[in-house]
Design goal:
Layout lengths: L1 H5 L4 H32 L2 H28 L2 H22 L5 H30 L5 H30 L2 H18 L15 H19 L1 H32 L4 H25 L8 H18 L6 H33 L2 H16 L1 H15 L2 H18 L1 H6 L4
């Protein structure tokens, strides 16, 4: 096993990567098209922000549950079951489309899609230490994150063209087919599993496991709690403004086409791919001390977006600046994510890994729905440049204030 794990692209890791490519592409094309369809049909940025906020809540709730399952259930079976479930959900949406009210249907579908994604990703992340040797973890995480961003590159790019030419129907067909094919492929993945006996009911077991992981974060490694709070603040201030602001500005303020919107989202995916390549190239030379710098770069790029939409700036120039800034911001964010995730995987005991990752992600993401709902209202009531510059200034303060916290992460 050790000889097999010493290589990066082992048989099972390669199957995980291919399954991720197919499944995440299906996710990306649906997550792009459904909110954009709602925005085009209603024209309300506030509703767009509220729907995004509602969609994120199930992912936050399901993340810790998925982490608990990843530490107790065969991780390959989790991936297979959830991909089949998502394929079925896509079919249900297609059958109800045009028969059920639009807004509730989109909200429920997106909530279920994000809930499944929240339960799915801890299984993938917790499987890497079982498939790769410790010296390959950073590269493995870089590959998985590059796959995610590649899907986010291709999904919106193709989705924007398909949606603009033929509407939503082919999007649903492609998404459902991706999930079904991914589930079939994942049937052949072999992930080592150490069974942990369950002495109580399901709910009691979940509660006990989450309590165990929370105790580890708050008492044994409290620096993880501080990092989580920094991430939560950053999600509230900056991630949320980009999630709501970029589509709203491109589609509503600049009046760009669906294809332009797809290209901007694809640029963000390309930026994430670039960040993953950089993380894989630099590997061990990256350290947590680089974290605040990456966050500060994201803040400065958000400020550049704000300047790009000042009154009098031509729409074409604004679009180019926003797209370029989004690409670079995603590069910095992905570089930061890979480094932090690799460090957590290296320091957390294997029996806690899935739960700890899920808890960190859940708490860090808790603020995002609130930020998305708030920014949806702010973008309708205030000039977009004021919202972007304000968010950039506050997030820059968070980045600068987090330097000591990230330095403490280097102490095992």
């Amino acid at each position: 096993m050790e000889t097999q794990k010493s290589a990066l692209f082992t048989r099972d890791f390669t199957l995980v990567v291919i399954g991720q490519i197919i499944s995440l592409f299906g996710n990306a094309i649906l997550h792009f098209a459904l909110p954009l369809y709602l925005l085009r049909e209603t024209g309300s940025i506030a509703l767009f922000g509220a729907v995004n906020a509602c969609s994120f809540l199930p992912m936050i709730l399901m993340g810790p549950i998925g982490g608990t399952a990843a530490d107790r259930v065969n991780k390959g079976r989790i991936m297979v079951g959830l991909d089949f479930l998502t394929a079925g959900l896509t079919v249900c949406y297609a059958l109800l489309w045009g028969k059920a009210p639009l807004v509730p249907l989109v909200i429920v579908t997106l909530m279920l899609l994000y809930a499944i994604a929240g339960a799915y990703q801890p299984a993938v992340q917790a499987s890497l230490p079982l498939l790769l040797s410790p010296d390959r973890l950073t590269q493995g995480n870089a590959v998985i994150n590059m796959v995610s961003t590649l899907a986010n590159l291709l999904g919106p790019a193709l989705g924007g063209v398909i949606f603009g030419l033929w509407g939503l129907s082919p999007i649903l067909a492609v998404g459902g087919a991706c999930f079904f094919c991914s589930a079939v492929m994942e049937l052949f993945i072999r992930i080592p599993q150490v069974k942990r006996p369950r002495t109580a009911g399901v709910l009691a077991t979940v509660k006990g496991d989450l309590g165990e992981s929370w105790q580890y974060i708050t008492q044994e490694r409290p620096v993880f709690l501080w990092v989580t709070l920094v991430l939560s603040a950053f999600n509230l201030l900056l991630s949320a403004v980009m999630i709501v602001g970029i589509p709203a500005i491109v589609a509503q303020v600049l009046n760009m086409s669906d294809a332009h919107m797809g290209l901007t989202q694809a640029a963000m995916g390309l930026g994430g791919l670039l960040g993953g390549l950089l993380a894989g190239a630099f590997g061990a030379r990256l350290s947590p001390r680089h974290g605040p710098f990456c966050l500060l770069v994201c803040s400065l790029l958000a400020a550049g977006m704000g300047l790009a939409v000042l009154p009098g700036v031509p729409a074409a120039l604004s679009y180019r600046v926003i797209t370029a800034a989004a690409l670079l911001a995603m590069s910095a964010a992905m570089l930061f994510t890979v480094v932090l995730l690799s460090l957590v995987q290296a320091q957390v005991p294997g029996q806690l890994l899935g739960k700890v990752i899920a808890c960190i992600q859940a708490v860090a993401n808790c603020a995002s729905p609130l930020g998305q709902a708030a920014y949806g209202v702010l973008f309708e009531r205030l000039p977009p440049w004021t919202v972007l510059l304000g968010a950039a200034a506050l997030s820059a303060l968070v980045a600068l204030g987090s330097r000591r916290i990230f330095q403490a992460l280097e102490t095992v």
